[in-house]
């Protein structure tokens, strides 16, 4: 039977019920996004094993994550335009097929160059998934029920990164690195087949010219910033010998040019990324909080495995398992947090959520070589609860504060800033930690003895930054159309 590919109106986004076809699309996108983000986060623990298996130096292996982040940073800013120009079905199938091709390349890669190419192709598909999911939720789900659905989106964006290290550790210890892709590939193929059968087009498309200059400026701006930050967090300088700070400054210059170009184009509604989203005070505050929360989350998920293996002496599987209980609880709490948001608004969740995140970071700044594993698990559970309580109100309140025509652009900007903030968090924490290791080497300290104070200093710095969302959480408002009984 040929699937219906005609545009589907979404009147229920203005009413009180969710269109069944739209709900089916959301479930498909949730599965696809979960698989894509899970794949993204399995590599942190895998890189040391890949370095040995492929016979490459650590600075080369780091490119498996740097290139992935770089590609994401280039792709995501273009999704606001893509989601308006092309149909839901076209964008989904393009993203999932691209991801499948990249995963297959990684699975059969004979060496490092092919594996790196596969990661880049994977990232191109991954970068489209989250903006597509969030924009679809905003267009399909009635305002009064968006918290519940955004709770499921929060589950994907927080559970997948936490499960990634656990899955990676178990697979590496028992099956080998190729199975990281061998497990993901059939799930992605199933998602594609379901999409071919069930994916329908939601909303309407509009024809707009593609501004090539905006795409080039975006690539150099966001790509340069993320690449420079990843080099600081990775090995200090790019392979070409250019200092990372120079790359970051260059990216910032291109960002200024990109902003100027968008301000010109949006007068004709032709912008690649419409910056009128930043005229909403509520959106801006939510994005700032989201950026700092993402900085904390990705920084922690990057530094914690290093601490657990190098300082606490755990093997990859044990290091991954430290994150598992919190991940499970976070997954279970996502929809619950959504219902609380719908009933009580953002502050009820966001204030305690941001406090828990900051408190967990401060506690992490006290860990050492003999910190018991159970204590680390408890702290990670507390942080996971904080993340679960933060993502749902931030997603719902930020995008819900925008006009309907700006949903796709708001989602693109939100996801782009998450990537940049994640790169900042990773670079900052790893650089501080590495600095202590290098200083320790010069005076003859072991990795354990030098790594403990390095971990403490890195987490203390992040904890101080994490206090900013605690203050800003009091200023987030629930959008008027999400109030109980409100209508358009």
Topology at a glance:
Blueprint: E1 7-8, H1 20-40, H2 43-54, H3 58-61, H4 63-75, H5 79-85, H6 88-108, H7 112-140, H8 146-174, H9 178-198, E2 201-202, H10 212-234, H11 244-265, H12 281-311, H13 316-344, H14 347-364, H15 373-400, H16 407-442, H17 447-465, H18 467-472
Radius of gyration (CA) equals: 21 Å
Tell me roughly what share of residues is in helical segments.
Answer: over 70%
What share of residues are in beta strands?
under 5%
Mean pLDDT, as a whole number?
Answer: 81
What does this structure look like?
The protein has 488 residues and is mainly α. The longest helix is centred in the C-terminal third of the chain and has 36 residues. The N terminus is likely disordered.
In brief:
The chain has helices at residues 20-40, 43-54, 58-61, 63-75, 79-85, 88-108, 112-140, 146-174, 178-198, 212-234, 244-265, 281-311, 316-344, 347-364, 373-400, 407-442, 447-465, 467-472; strands at 7-8, 201-202.
């Amino acid at each position: 039977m040929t699937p219906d590919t005609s545009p589907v109106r979404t009147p229920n986004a203005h009413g009180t019920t969710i269109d069944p076809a739209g709900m089916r699309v959301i479930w498909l996108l949730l599965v696809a996004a979960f698989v894509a983000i899970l794949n993204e986060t399995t590599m942190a623990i895998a890189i040391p094993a890949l370095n040995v298996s492929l016979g490459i130096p650590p600075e080369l292996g780091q490119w498996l994550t740097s290139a992935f982040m770089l590609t994401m940073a280039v792709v995501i800013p273009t999704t606001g335009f893509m989601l308006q120009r092309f149909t839901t079905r076209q964008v989904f199938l393009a993203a999932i097929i691209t991801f499948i091709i990249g995963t297959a390349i990684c699975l059969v890669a004979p060496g490092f160059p092919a594996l790196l190419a596969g990661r880049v192709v994977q990232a191109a598909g991954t970068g489209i998934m989250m903006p597509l999911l969030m924009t679809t939720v905003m267009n399909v789900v009635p305002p009064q029920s968006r918290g519940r659905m955004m709770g499921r989106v929060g589950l994907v964006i927080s559970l997948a990164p936490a499960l990634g290290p656990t899955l990676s550790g178990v697979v590496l210890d028992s099956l080998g690195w190729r199975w990281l892709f061998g497990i993901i590939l059939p799930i992605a193929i199933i998602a594609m087949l379901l999409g071919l059968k069930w994916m329908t087009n939601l909303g309407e498309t509009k024809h707009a010219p593609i501004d090539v200059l905006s795409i080039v400026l975006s690539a150099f701006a966001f790509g340069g910033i993320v690449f420079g930050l990843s080099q600081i967090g990775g090995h200090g300088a790019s392979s070409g010998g250019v200092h990372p700070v120079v790359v970051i400054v260059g990216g910032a210059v291109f960002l200024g040019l990109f902003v100027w170009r968008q301000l010109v184009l949006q007068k004709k509604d032709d912008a690649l990324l419409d910056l009128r989203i930043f005229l909403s005070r509520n959106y801006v505050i939510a994005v700032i909080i989201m950026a700092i929360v993402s900085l904390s989350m990705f920084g922690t998920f990057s530094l914690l495995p290093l601490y657990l293996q190098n300082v606490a002496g755990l093997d990859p599987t044990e290091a991954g398992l430290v994150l598992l209980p919190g991940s499970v609880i976070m997954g279970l709490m996502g929809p619950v947090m959504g219902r609380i948001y719908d009933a009580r608004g953002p502050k009820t969740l966001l204030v305690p959520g941001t406090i828990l995140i900051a408190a967990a970071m401060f506690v992490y700044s006290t860990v050492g070589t003999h910190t018991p594993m159970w204590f680390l698990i408890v702290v990670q559970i507390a942080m996971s609860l904080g993340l679960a309580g933060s993502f749902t109100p931030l997603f719902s309140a930020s995008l819900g504060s925008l006009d309907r025509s700006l949903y796709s652009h708001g989602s693109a900007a939100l996801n782009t800033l998450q990537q940049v903030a994640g790169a900042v968090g990773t670079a900052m924490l790893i650089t501080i930690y590495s600095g202590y290791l290098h200083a320790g080497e010069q005076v003859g300290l072991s990795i354990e003895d030098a790594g403990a104070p390095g971990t403490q200093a890195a987490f203390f710095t992040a904890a101080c930054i994490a206090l900013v969302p605690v203050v800003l959480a009091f200023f987030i408002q629930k959008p008027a159309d999400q109030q109980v009984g409100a209508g358009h």
